[in-house]
Amino acid sequence: MHSRLKPELIDTDAGYSMGPLKLLALSGSLRKASCNTAAIRALKVLAPGDVDITIGTIGELPLFNPDCENDHIPALEKLRSALKASDGLILASPEYAHGISGPLKNALDWLVSTDEFPYKPIMLVNTSARATHAHAALQEVLATMSGNLIEKAHVSIMLLGTGLDAGGIVEARDIASALRTGLDEFCMAIEACNMGKCVSHPRE
After folding, report:
1. Where are the domains of the chain?
2. CA angle (89 as vertex; 87, 91 as ends), nearest 5
């Protein structure tokens, strides 16, 4: 992978130095053999040493209930803590009936009124060329939640039906290259924003 930050974006006069980036990755599928989960696991392997990707879980969250937002929910507290500690969020979601997966939408509903989500840089990974409806719906939801969608970092790869696991994805040159490029763009966008030189903004 290339340098996380392009030379023209480095402000030496400001004394800026790059530190490790912490990213949180969530899969919208609970299937053990999910290609979306495989994609983010491959991203973790492909990430350079100065990029730490934590793969979070959403399967233990209860169904969203606004009456319970102030309750002690360990799974939610763990998710919020991981999101707060992260510099950016990576989401990979399957499409079900032309919509966002239920588990991911449920997780996002729990995060709507939290302080950790707004303006968080977001990278989307789409693992099926047919999942256009869910991708568009997810973008709309994230923009409504004031997420900072980094469009140049979004990756669309064909994994559905390939049977590739994370290891197979890493070994598949074209797919791995697409994931690396998206991650590189994501990291550069995050660091540009940290320097006050954002290259992307939330969608209107």
Report:
1. 21-194
2. 165
pLDDT in tens, 83-100: 999 999 999 998 888 889
Cβ pair 75, 109 in contact under 8 A:
no
Please name the amino acid found at residue 42: A
Radius of gyration of the chain (CA): 17
Query: Domain 21-194 classified CATH 3.40.50.360?
Result: yes
At 53 the three-state DSSP class reads strand
Instruction: Indicate the pTM of the whole model.
Output: 0.87
Instruction: Answer for the pair 72, 83: CB distance below 8 angstroms, yes or no.
Output: no
HSE, CB side, 13 Å, CA atoms: give it for residue 89: 29
**Chain-wide mean pLDDT for the chain?**
88
Helix (H) or strand (E) holding 141: helix 132-144
